[in-house]
Every structure is written in structure tokens, then in C-alpha cells.
Amino acid sequence: MRDYPRQRVIRNLFLATAIGFCGFALLPTQTFASPASPLTLGDGDICERMEDCFQAAALPKERFSKALNKEQVLSLKLERLQRLMARFPATGLAKRAGALSGVLLIERNPTAAIQFLRTAQQEFPILDDYIRLWMGEALLNLGEAKKAAEMFASIPQAAPDSYLLTKAAYRAGEAWYQASSCPEATAWFAKAMELNDKELGGAQALLRRGDCQLRSNNISAGRETLMQLWVRFSYSAEAKEAEALLNSNLGGTPWVVQSSDRLARAQAYLGQSFHAEAIEELRKFLVADPQSPRRSDAKLKLGIAQVRLKQYDQARETFRALVKEGGLESHEGSVWLARTYLRQGQGDKLLDLARTTQTSSLSTEQKGQITLFAGMWLEDQSRFDEAIIRYRQVAKVGEPASQRAEARWRVGWVHYRLAQYREAGDELRQLAGQHDSDFEPQALYWMGRAAELSQQPHAHDVYLQLCQRYVYTYYCQLARERSDILLAEPSASEPMLATVPVNGGSAAKGGTTRLAPARAEIEQQSAYRRAIELKTLGLDLDATRELAGLTDRYSRDPDALMALATMLSEMGAYHHALRLARARFRDKLERTGGMVDPSLWKAAYPTGLLPTIKGQGASGVDPYLVAAIIREESQYDWQAVSRVGAIGLMQVMPGTANIVAQRLGLPAVGRDDLFDQETNIRIGVHYVGQLLEQFSGNVALTIASYNAGPLVVTSWMSQHPGRSQDEFVELIPYQETRQYVKRVLRSYREYIRLDKAS
Fold it and tell me: How do residues 118-138 score in pLDDT, each as one tens digit?
């Protein structure tokens, strides 16, 4: 792979760019002793180049060492930064070492931090808003709360377009609160929540405001504020503090929870995927207010939360009760009840429900979905003729068009399963001409498979048609495995966003693309220059926010967006790069193909975490398979939390994490631990290894098990013995798992293709 040298080049480019921003006042270094040259880093490592020394200080590899705790790593960073400043005085990186020292010393030695940061403020005006924020934090740690508040408050005037305005407002409020100046604190908290009331900082703002109101003996207002906190930020630690205060009989009045607050609090829990907590609040609401007009809505939310936690028995009873009540929510409850019956294999009840709902007031879409579920169960029971009747009914009158297309696809698929290949081809041909249908790629593929199996000569032509229309799809990948098909080139009439074709990528060498002017323009933006400085200091999240913020500015410029995606990828902001690539170039990258800059493929298929993946020591696990899982599980968002509570890059469930950790002889892994990228990858990689071993190296089964669990996959295998892998994937009964397997397999194959092309 050429990725690793390229990444090294990019890293050095950032450093070189940072050095190019020099010409500022010299950092005072007279207090440092000059070490001998070269600079010894420890463990026998020696750095010769200034850039390497800075890298070893800002991002020491020892930060991943189990032998050093966070405090020891911090000491190591500061020591190396000090020695670098002494060895390379008056250089750009020495000045940045001073700025970074200031950031690292905010809590340990705020006085020294302020000294460094004041110097940095003169040397790096592009970071003025950040430096003001850091200085404010240092002043707060010194107990200089008023000075800190004034420093935070100065940010809007100094940088009106700063991305830190919301955070600065929250911190100004906190500083005034610590200065016991409640009016100023309340005003700043109010301003912060006007800017963004969805940040977790809003919880602390409400807690402080409530405390200020209680201090001024405004009991009713304080109680109202604390109740607002308890409801809106139910998942926060501050909510627990608010609850304790409310339960203390403020003003001598017992706290009585309103039923509407219970429902709103449950909704807040659901928004953060705390389903168990939401269920508890919803149940309390239903008991407290049996006559509420929101009762049906609460039951629907309760049942869905139970499904998310796989509490199917409870969910079934919740939906049954909801359906009996009638109303609009009961109609949606009927669909969820049908889904639950299907998941539990209760076909007789599902068929009864499908019959009764045909004459009900449910919408055409809701009736069609229930009928589809009934057909799926009949198909699973090998009652194929009955299943086809249900599917044809939906294909004729279902709404919307996508529902009719799915039904028609299922008719063709049943014929294929019955080895009625000519009939399957005839049914699927009706979908093959619907270019706006999501089912067209798979219809074309299975038309080709049916033609093969019925020994018709046009199978290759069907596969070719598929890959001409949908070149980088899962189904074209399958077709290319069965037929000698070259990757399709875009048509001459297709507008080109760059001058370099995606296939092979070699044409990019030694030449420039149309992205060069767009990239040059982006590099002139202050946000980009701030991002470079922040990246150089190892402040990756801040750097990413600055660069990603340019997306709106260039929303109408495809070339600029393509350049921005590649620049985000180069900076290590893989999630943002991938999200942008998918949002604006998905059709070209994942369906029809097209002309794009080769660098965009790096944004769409990140490789920056491959060294971390490879470093986990899990034998037999292809790093590209893990990269594909990360891509589809979280889109490289280390902060991701799924609706069922899976966490981080590889969307690991806390229970699974602890089982894997125990097998590896590691300490127990908590929920917060899984937000650490290396911990998450370590657990995920070894779990993938365990699944591969369990399923004898079968990648498709491993992927399915990663999503649905090995027990259920084993049961599916027993139901469909002797099926080819492509057939087995199509037979997976869980739609979520079926689509997930297809996505991961597609990404896995694309990673391999791109590696060969590099």
C-alpha cells in the first residue's frame, strides 16, 4: 500500500505549511536549558528533524501505552515541547510548541499557561478566538472568575464569525456564576441557549440559572427552571442534581411531576437512544394519566422502544392494546404489531391481522406493508403460492411506487426460489426498465442468474447492462464475479467534475485536475488557515469543525465540495469527508460511476485507521473487512450511538464489549470507554476474529453475525442449506441485516479494488 508514505507526506505538509506562517515575535526560551543534539525521546528513539521532534511531542506514540497514564503522557508531552523549544528556538514549530504548552498547562499550571498563551496571541492572530477561550479557562482555574468572564465575553467582539461563539457564551455564564454574579451569569446562559439550546452545555446552564433563582429566593422560577432541565436533558448528570433539588420540597412545597413532563422526558431519552429509561418514563406517564389525549402516542413510542431493545413479547402486548383503542396511532401500531408477529414467527396471528385490516381505515401504504409482512411469512413457510397472491395484491394497488416495486421484486424472487427461472426473468424484466427504482440493480442481477440457470444465452448481456447502469453497486460486483465484465466508463454526455477518470487512478500522476483552483481558493479562507494551525497543534476536533464549516459556503460548487472532501480526509476528519462524499457524490461513487478525482475515493473509503486496525494483533482478520464494517456501521464517527445503544466506530454493544474484553484478559469496558477509538477498534476487531473463526472464515456469515448475532445466523443457515452465498444473503429474513450485509460486502470489495488500483 502507498497510503502510509502518503500520510507521512500529508503530515509533513501540515507542518511545513505551519512553518510557512512564521515571521512572528520570538518565543522567550531563556528559561530552558539547551539539550545536546540530537534530541533523545526515550526508549532509544532519537529525532533529528524538527518536524519529527514536534510530532513526537504533540502526538507521542506512548499515549497508547498501557504503562503510562494520562498524567504521565501529559508530562512527557510538556518535557518534549520544552526541549524542542530549547533546541530549535525562533522557529515556527518552537512557537507552536509554546502555544501547545499553554493549552496543556491550563489545568496543571494556569499561570504558566497564560504566559505562553499571551505570547501565542501575538504570534498567531488567526487563532485569536481559540487563544482567548484557553486563556479564559486558565483564568478560571486561577480563581480569577471575573477576568475569565471578561475574556470569554471578548470573543464575539474579537471574532464575530467564530465557531466558538456558543461555547464562549456558556463559559462566560459559568465564569460569572463562579464569580457569584447571577444576573450576568443568567444573561450569558440565556444568550448561549439562544445560539444553540441542544448542546449538553444547556444542562449546566439551566442548573446554574435555577440555582441563581433559588439564591434570590425566587422559588417558583427556580423550580420551573430545574423542571425544564429535568425534562429536556433527562440523560444528563445535571438532571440528577435537579431531581435531588426538586425532591427537597423547595419552598416547603412537595414536587409533583406533571404527566406531560413524563412524556417529554421520555422523548428526550429516546432522542439519545436511552430506550430503557424512556420505557420507564412512558410507563409512569400511562399510569399517572389514563385519560390523556397523548396516551396513544405514548403507547406507540413505548412499543417501538421495546422493539429496539428486542423485548418482543412486551412490544406485542403494547401494540395489541394500542390497536384495540383505535385512532391514528393505532393504525401505525398495527404495522408495528405485524412487524413484531413476523419477527416472532407468529404467522397465524399475522395473517389474521392482515385480513382484518383490509376493511379498516388504515392507509393504503399501511395495508400494503402489513400484506407484504404476511407474504414474507408465507414465503418463509414455503407456502409460495399464497405468498405470491399477497405480493401481487400489493404490486397492483400498493402505495407508494417503491412498495409496488418491492412486491413485484418478491414475486420474481419467489419464482427464482422455485427454480422457475423463465417466470422469474419475466417478472423481473418489468422492474429492469424502471430506472428510478431501487430494486432495478438486484432485478437485473437475478435476471442474469435466472438466465444462466435456464441456459439462456443472454445472461452476459444482462450482467453487462447492470454494470453499465450501476457500476459500483453490490450487484455489479456479483455480476463481475460471474462474467468477464470491465468496469463501465461514463457516457460522453455526462458532465465531468474532474479531468481524471476513477478507474485505475493512474492518470492523476504528474498532472493537475480541475480541483486545483477550487483547492487553492479554499486554502485562502481563514477557516482553512485556522484548521491547519489547530491540526498542527494536535487539536483535531477543532480543526475538523473549522474546515467542515466551509461546506455551506461552497454548497453550490461541486468542484469545491469535492476538494473539500479530499482535504477533510487528508486532515484525518474521515467521518466528515465520507459524509460529504456520500451526500454530494454518492451516485457517482456507489451507483452509476462517473468522472471524479481519484482523491475523492480516499474520502469515500478512508484508510487512515488501517495502522490502528492492524495493530490489534487479531490474526486472520483482513483490515479492509474491518474498515468496511466501520464505514457502514458509523461512517467513521467515533461519537456515534445507534438507536439500540451500540457505540463508537464499530458500533459495539457494551455487553458484547465486556465479553470480548474478558476473553482478552482486559479490564471491564464501560460505555464511555467505547468512545475511545483504539479501545473500540480493539474490541471490534477481536470480535470479528471470533466470528470468522466460528463461521470458518466465511465473510458473509461473519458480517451477518456482526449485525444480527451468531445464533440467529446459525438458524438461518439450517433453514437454507446448500444455497450459494449470493442466494443466502438475499434470503436473510431481517431486512436491516440483509441490506447491511450487502453494504459491507460492497465496501469490502471496493477497498480491495482501490488497493489494487493504487
Answer: 999 999 999 999 999 999 999
